[in-house]
Design goal:
Blueprint lengths: L1 E4 L1 H8 L6 H12 L3 E4 L1 H8 L4 H11 L13 H7 L5 H14 L5 E3 L3 H9 L6 E2 L1 H12 L10 E4 L11 H6 L3 H10 L4 E7 L2 E15 L5 E14 L6 H15 L4 E6 L6 H7 L4 E5 L6 E6 L9 H7 L4 E2 L6 E6 L1 H7 L11 H4 L3 H4 L2 E6 L11 E6 L5 E8 L4 E3 L2 H8 L7 H9 L2 E17 H6 L11 E3 L1 H10 L7 E2 L1
Parallel strand pairs: 1-2, 1-3, 3-4, 8-9, 12-20, 13-15
Antiparallel strand pairs: 5-6, 6-7, 7-8, 9-11, 10-11, 13-19, 14-18, 15-16, 16-18, 17-18
Helix pairs in contact: 2-8, 3-6
Protein name: N-acetyltransferase domain-containing protein
InterPro entries: Acyl_CoA_acyltransferase, PUA-like_sf
């Protein structure tokens, strides 16, 4: 974007005085993101009117270091009729500066001149004329990134990574230009990444890149904002770490308003990566025209709301269907099991194990809840809302049942059904099996931004008291719950 500084912004920048913190931060943002900074010839005329010759020449010498807007047009009669006839040379200069915005020679003006801002309002371009504080607010919102965090993962800059570790050998082997790409693109552009380490050795790696360009398939995918998974690699077979990295990537997209994510990959027979990403809605959309690499694209916006609930939850995860046809249940869970099943829940007390151990089911999107409940109404596509009992007494998380619930007394069958989803030890599973355990396989979709307390649930007639067992609620109660919990409705289909 092209940004024009008014004279009253330029003088503080060039004066031998300490800049205000807001102006320092604003200039850093503008320059970090490579916006074009320009000045109007009228600003030079303003400075030339300064009676202090030494100061005038000093400031002019510095301002000439900025690009000057070439041959800007002079205001026409219709413009002057809108903003008013200038009464002095300062007004004439202000009008010329504002006219360059009005004629779209620049995208924004930054000024502390209230007169220019009043005139901009008359021209209906006031949304493009900023003070220092409003410009800082705009650019901070424009570039602020809400980056997800996890206690097991480190976020680092590319230059902090040692790519001579054995972990990167396969990437260098599969991509002959990996070293050059790393140096020229990742290090020089200060890209960020997430890593998982064990004893100082990298075992998992994720790097994302924001894009606003076409994908070079045949035919090409249209230009739109997307996130690309430039690198995803895990050297921990069976750990569910890949799911954790995908979950992190999805959260990045959601936090920062991206509705498509993709990756490129040379597919092999029985490819584990293709299997994992296929479970979360990545679809092969063709090959890159430059090198034949397969392209896998995932969308977050549901294009056909008539699809089956499970299809929506899988293909467009974390979207889910929640209309009146969907059954909804409140599921009580003790704090100790909640902590293990949802270790990244932000409102729980962290323990030493959070920083030292891989919690397999906690890392996963796919989870399993065990209960002695006799309920029979839960089916694939049902919504489960987890109520953390005892300490917080609040609904915290929402998921969608993704397989038929199972009731069993066979420990071997229980272990097979639960598999890597379980938060329980072998001994605990044996104990559960003796009680004719009820297993609910589900995918975790969201935490409620505003966890709903028992008092709220009572007030809205959703619950009468603390739930002792799995409790079905009706659609109206769910709507009140969804509203109070501030669930992001961009990702619900109804």
């Amino acid at each position: 974007m092209k940004i024009l500084y008014d004279t009253n912004i330029l003088i503080p920048i060039q004066d031998p005085k300490i800049l205000s913190p807001d102006l320092q931060e604003l200039l850093a943002l503008i320059r970090e993101h490579s916006h074009q900074e320009v000045i109007h010839p009228a600003s030079l005329k303003d400075i030339e009117n300064d009676n202090d010759a030494e100061r005038r020449e000093m400031i002019l010498s510095k301002l000439r270091g900025y690009p000057i807007l070439p041959s800007p047009p002079l205001p026409d009669d219709s413009f002057v009729s809108l903003v008013g006839t200038p009464s002095n040379s300062h007004d004439i200069n202000d009008n010329e500066i504002l006219y360059s915005l009005y004629k779209n020679l620049v995208d924004f003006i930054i000024t502390e001149d209230k007169g220019i801002r009043r005139k901009a309002f008359r021209l209906d371009v006031d949304h493009r004329v900023f003070s220092i504080s409003s410009a800082l607010d705009y650019f901070k919102r424009l570039y602020k990134r809400h980056e997800p965090k996890h206690t097991l993962l480190k976020q680092l800059y590319a230059h902090e990574i040692d790519i001579n570790q054995p972990f990167f050998n396969s990437l260098k082997r599969d991509y002959t230009d990996f070293q050059q790409w790393w140096t020229e693109k990742c290090v020089k552009q200060s890209r960020k990444c997430w890593i998982y380490e064990e004893e100082g050795e990298i075992k998992g790696f994720l790097m994302l890149k924001e894009e606003t360009e076409a994908i070079d398939t045949s035919p090409p995918q249209p230009i739109k904002p997307r996130v690309k998974i430039t690198t995803l690699k895990v050297d921990l077979s069976g750990s569910k770490m890949g799911e954790l990295f995908l979950k992190l990537a999805f959260q990045y997209c959601i936090n920062n308003n991206f509705f498509e994510i993709y990756l490129t990959h040379f597919e092999t027979n029985d490819d584990p990566l293709v299997y994992v990403i296929g479970n979360y809605g990545f679809e092969n959309i063709g090959k890159r025209t430059c090198n034949g690499e397969d392209v896998y694209l995932k969308k977050f916006k549901v294009e056909d709301t008539s699809l089956e609930p499970l299809t929506i939850a899988n293909r467009y995860y974390p979207c889910f269907k929640d209309d009146e046809s969907i059954k909804k249940f409140i599921v009580p869970i003790k704090p100790e099991y909640h902590d293990t099943l949802f270790p990244d829940y932000s409102r729980r007390q962290l323990t030493f194990d959070d920083y030292t151990e891989i919690n397999v089911p906690g890392n996963a999107i796919k989870k399993a809840y065990l209960s002695s409940s006799r309920i029979t109404k839960i089916t694939p596509g049902s919504i489960v809302l987890f109520y953390r009992s005892k300490d917080q007494k609040a609904i915290t998380a929402i998921g969608v049942v993704d397989q038929d619930p199972i009731r069993t007394t066979d420990p071997t069958e229980l272990k097979r059904i639960v598999g890597k989803r379980s938060v329980y030890s072998d001994e605990e599973l044996m104990g559960w099996a003796k009680e004719n355990v009820f297993v609910i396989p589900f995918k975790h979709h969201f935490y409620l931004p505003n966890p709903l307390s028992l008092s709220y649930l009572k007030e809205k007639d959703i619950l009468k008291s603390h739930p002792q067992s799995i409790t079905e609620i009706n659609h109206e109660q769910y709507v009140a719950l969804k509203s109070g919990g501030k669930l992001d409705e961009r990702f619900t289909v109804n």
